[in-house]
Write a structure and sequence with these properties.
The protein is mainly α. It has 9 helices and no strands.
């Protein structure tokens, strides 16, 4: 019976594999690697300190989509954009569309309701429209 041996990773193997996968994948990001190439991801973190550092070492760190930096003003602008597009602002609807906006609103305002009110909307009317 043949046993499959796990890959013994070193920095060179990690960088080569990252380059190959980057050429094959349209969006090779740390999140993609974490979910689809877990052993590579873990080896990169072990050898480089983080997956982003491994990407930079492979010459691929530029142009990666970074997490959006939120502020109270940006959250309010996003809420108003949804309202202009006539997208219901109730929690469950927005949560299905963009969990990041909900999380940011809770972090900066304490709740989604408070963020919607701060953006100038009557949350009780929004909640009833469901």
């Amino acid at each position: 019976m043949n046993k499959i041996r796990p890959t013994k990773w070193n920095k060179e193997k990690i960088l080569n594999r990252i380059k190959v996968l980057n050429n094959q994948c349209r969006a090779f990001t740390p999140a993609y690697a974490f979910y689809h190439h877990r052993n590579l991801y873990q080896a990169a973190v072990r050898h480089f300190g983080s997956f982003r550092k491994a990407l930079r070492a492979a010459g691929l760190g530029k142009g990666l989509r970074r997490e959006r930096k939120w502020s109270k003003e940006k959250i309010i602008v996003e809420i108003r954009k949804y309202a202009r597009r006539r997208i219901p602002l109730n929690y469950s609807n927005i949560n299905r569309r963009t969990r990041r906006l909900i999380n940011a609103a809770i972090r900066y305002f304490g709740s989604w309701r408070k963020a919607v009110i701060k953006a100038g909307f009557d949350y009780d009317k929004i909640k009833k429209r469901r």
